[in-house]
Specification:
Blueprint lengths: L5 E6 L14 H11 L3 E5 L4 H12 L2 H4 L2 E4 L5 E5 L7 E6 L2 H5 L1 H19 L12 E3 L4 E3 L8 H14 L1 H16 L5 E6 L3 E6 L16 E7 L9 H7 L5 E3 L3 H15 L4
Parallel strand pairs: 1-2, 1-10, 2-3, 10-11
Antiparallel strand pairs: 3-4, 4-5, 6-7, 7-9, 8-9
Helix pairs in contact: 1-9, 5-7
């Protein structure tokens, strides 16, 4: 660890800190509490603040953790900190807007493209239960869920099984990228697999490395833990940026994340 820099460990949330769309477990909070004694902690997610709060709420009530806690929704294009005096209250530090950045014409073309592809999936032979709330405008990004964000756990499992078997999202990711190229906006817009059931669509450069804007690398020594580190995943860019410095970790889920914290991160921070 570089003693002249402030250490901060950034964690993806869904599939890393928690199981997909589940709440955080006590043993994870215990590990994060120990880590927070030696490092700043950030939760860097493609989800918005509402979903992060739902999944991590007990953690934000922990007085040891919330003193060193940063919340970075929508790939870090929003930045919030906890109010240590009022559990569950947050202060907004920064936010930005995708429609403002890319312009209304481009934004409307993206929405139309998602609607068209959602209709194509709905009219296909894929065995998918559609549940509603398929497109969510998060301000600085758009989340598109072919199954719908109203899906329950069993419906999500059903979709995940079909997605693994038929690579539904991978096929439509490639279709989406080709359509962006046809529209001449491929240099402006990025699409990534988000979680287990959706896509994240955002301006180029607004991937999770956006968080570096809040924590300049001249001042901070940044570590990252995430589960979607393959090129199509929304953890890829930040993982790739930090891996050459041995400060990026790919996890298979919360159980392995606890091992990464307890075995690797605390050792690297020289605080075993």
């Amino acid at each position: 660890m570089n003693e002249s820099k402030i250490p901060i460990v950034l964690f993806d949330v869904d599939g890393t800190i928690t199981e997909a769309r589940k709440t955080i477990q006590k043993h994870m909070i215990t590990s994060l509490r120990e880590l927070s004694l030696h490092s700043e902690i950030g939760f860097l997610s493609g989800s918005n603040l509402k979903f992060i709060k739902e999944q991590l709420w007990p953690l934000f009530a922990d007085p040891a953790i919330n003193k060193n806690c940063h919340i970075l929704p929508c790939n870090g294009t929003e930045y919030w900190i906890t109010n240590p005096d009022v559990p569950g209250d947050f202060f907004e530090i920064y936010s930005t807007s995708m429609p403002w950045h890319v312009g209304d014409d481009v934004f409307q073309n993206i929405i139309k493209l998602m609607i068209s592809m959602q209709a194509e999936i709905a009219n296909s032979d894929y065995d998918i239960p559609f549940t509603g709330h398929h497109i969510q405008n998060r301000g600085s990004m758009i989340n598109w869920s072919p199954i719908g964000r109203n899906a329950n756990h069993e419906q999500r499992k059903h979709f995940v099984a079909n997605d693994k078997a038929y690579r539904i999202r991978n096929k439509f990711l490639m279709k989406f990228e080709q359509s962006l190229s046809d529209l001449g906006i491929e240099h402006q817009i990025e699409i990534k697999l988000g979680g287990e059931t959706s896509f994240d669509i955002f301006p180029k450069g607004w991937d999770k490395t956006y968080a570096f804007n809040h924590f300049p690398q001249d001042d901070y020594e940044i570590y990252f833990v995430g589960d979607r580190c393959q090129p199509s995943g929304n953890d890829y860019e930040i993982y790739k940026a930090l891996a050459p410095f041995s400060r990026a970790f790919k996890t298979s889920g919360p159980e392995e994340t606890v091992e990464i914290i307890d075995i690797h991160l605390l050792r690297l921070l020289n605080r075993e």
